[in-house]
Amino acid sequence: MRVFLTGATGFIGSAVVRELIDAGHQVLGLARSNAGAKSLVAAGADVHRGSLEDLESLRSGAAAADGVIHTAFIHDFSNYRPAAEADRRAIETLGGALAGSDRPLIVTGGTLLVQRQGSLATEEDAPNPNFPRKSEEAALALAVRGVRASVLRLPLSVHGNGDHGFVPRLISTAQEKGVSAYIGDGLNRWPAVHRLDAAHLYRLVLEKGTAGASYHGVADEGIPTREIAEVIGRQLNVPVVSKSREEAADHFGWIALFFGIDAPASSAQTQEHLGWGPLQPGLITDLNAEHYFEHTAETLSLCTASA
Question: Which among 4, 15, 24, 280 could disulfide-bond with 199, CB atoms 3.0 to 4.6 Å apart, if both were Cys?
């Protein structure tokens, strides 16, 4: 199958490229820059130049493919609503190019975006209509119109070597502040999945997914945030402390909103329906690996020397 992949040079997308090619698929990867195009060629993928804002490039890329996987998103939390709107337009454009065919479209969503919080989120939970990001609603609207669109929800932490998301932000905050903190009692839970397990699930949804279905790429259903903070504190050799919700915003910055959420999620239905099973290390095991802290020792050493 020839697959058009947005976000093909990103942390998750690059793993999807490898997963698809190793399984015998051809990949047409969206690239904004010469550096991105070069990395795709090195990975064995074909290059399609364009961006999420260039709707014609999305339309032509999807039209040239047997299926589409959409992993790209503009992660600008200071301008989140415009980023969410660009994502919605991109999904509608990709779906429009696939209309009238049986070619699949897999859209990336999040387990955090479901309607209820504080209890185990399942694939049957509806998306939260009040959240600015409308990826899932756009995909399911396409499915109603006959497009073979489905949603793959990812958890708060997609981890692995090269991670530049939430966990590295927590590590850098602990390094900067001299303490590794959690919020309140730290019993609120974060779900997680390794990027390679997530990539494998994208392929399974592409090959076997059902139109209108939501799938969960979740390995760890819910890790207490205090446990995450404790591993970071141990690795950095800094105290582990609690911050009140009032103190959290000043300590963590924008990530406080996410680190204080209790959002466990299950992938039981996904595992049953698609035969998917996580094989990679869980988040805590991965956090204990060298790659999350390999540059930290050098930075701390420099800080000590200049003090």
Answer: 15
C-beta separation of 153 from 110 below 8 A: yes
Decide if 288 contacts 231 (C-beta within 8 A). yes
Classify 245 as helix, strand or coil.
helix
Q: How far apart are CA 179 and CA 90, in angstroms?
A: 41
HEC assignment per residue over 104-116: EEEEEEEHHHECC
* CB distance 50 to 61 below 8 Å: yes
Give dist(CA 235, CA 167) in Å, integer: 13
Torsion of CA 235, 237, 238, 239, to 10 degrees: 90
Among residues 236, 231, 245, which one has the least CA distance to residue 284? 231
Integer Cα distance of 13 and 71 in angstroms: 6
**Over 70: is that where the pLDDT of 169 sits?**
yes
Query: Confidence band (pLDDT; 50, 70, 90) for 306?
Result: very low
Element (H, E) at 6: strand 2-6
Q: Could you tell me the maximum CA-CA distance found in the chain, to the nearest angstrom?
A: 65
Task: Give the model confidence (pLDDT) of 39-66 as tens digits.
Answer: 999 999 999 999 999 999 999 999 999 9
What tokens does 232 get?
A: 């970071």
- Which tens digit of pLDDT belongs to each residue from 83-106? 889 999 999 999 999 998 999 999
DSSP bridge partners of 28: 4, 46
Sign of the C-alpha dihedral, residues 180, 279, 2, 46?
positive
CA distance 192 to 147: 29
